Amino acid sequence: MARSSNLRIGTRGSPLALAQAEQVKTQLTEAFPDLAAVLEIVVIKTTGDAITDRPLADAGGKGLFTKEIDDAMLDDSIDLAVHSMKDVPTWLPDGIVLPCMLEREDPRDAFISEKATSLDGLDEGAVVGTASLRRQAQVLARRPDLKVVSFRGNVQTRLKKLSDGDVDATLLAQAGLNRLGRADVATSVIETTDMLPAVGQGAIGITCRGDDRKALHFLGALNHTETVARVTSERALLEVLDGSCRTPIAALAEIAGDRLTLRGMIAKPDGSEVLETTLSGSVANAEGIGQDAGHDLLDRAGPNFLEGH
Q1: How far is CA 77 from its chain centroid?
Q2: What's 161-172 look like in SS3?
Q3: Are residues 169 and 288 in the same domain?
Q4: How many domains does the chain have?
Q5: What SS3 class is residue 245?
Q6: What digits encode the pLDDT tens for the residues 97-134?
Q7: Which residues are bridge partners to 101 per DSSP?
Q8: Catalytic site residue 87?
C-alpha cells in the first residue's frame, strides 16, 4: 500500500479532542501555508473512550487515552498525534517523541453549579460529581461534609448530568471549556491556591515518530518553550512519584523571568491527608526542580502513603 501523501493528525474523537486537533491544524497552516491542502485529521477510538461504566483507575489508569494512538503512529497510520498533556504517560513508547507543546491555556479548574457560586457555598451534604481523584481529594480536604461521586463522560455529557440534577456541582478544566467556546458555563474559576491542577493541565502536546524529520521540522515551529519548561517540571515530579490514576497528585509550575516555581501536592483520596511542597530555581533546571519536589513529597509521605488507600 502506498504511503499517504497527506500529513495525518491522529486524535481522539471527543468534541474537545477534535477542537484541539483543529487548533493544531490551524497553527500548522498559519506557519506553513502549503500544508493546507495535505493536512488530514484521523479519529482514533481509544480504550479510555470505550470505558464509560467505571472509573478509569479501575481499568488500568495511565495510557488509556494514548495507547491506540501510539500504535497507529508506530504502524504508520498517522504522522502526528495531538494529546492533552495531562493524559500522556511520563514514559513514551520507543520510537515516539514529544517535540512540541502549544502555548498553555488556563490551567485552573472551573466550578459549575446552579446551586452555589463556589465550593464553599454548597449546602452541607451536597453531591459533587468528578472522575478525578485529584479533584475529589482537594474537595474533601476543604469540605469533608460533601459527598463526591464518580462522574465520567465528555464535557457535554457531564453538563447534561448536572442540569438533570444528578449532582449539585461538578468541576471541569477551564482550558477545555475555553477551547470548546463554553467558558460561559463556568459558575466560577477556582484559583490554583485553592485547588492545584493536574500535571500538564491546559497544555496540548504533539507527538511524532522520532525518525520523521519532516514532522519534526513542522512541529519545531509550533513549540512553546515556556510551556515545555513548566510541563517538564511537573511531569518530572509525577515520574518520581510514579503517579497512577489511583493517586491524587497535583502540580503547577509558573515562570517569572528566569525563575521557575513549582508547587506540588499528593493526598489521600478521601482528603484526610494532604502534603504540599514548593520549590524554585532556574528555568534551565526545570526537570531537576520537579525531581527534587517529587523526592521531597516522597520522603515526607513515607512508604505506605501512596499505597495505603
Answers
A1: 25
A2: HHHCCCCCEEEE
A3: no
A4: 3
A5: coil
A6: 999 999 999 999 999 999 999 999 999 999 999 989 99
A7: 205
A8: yes
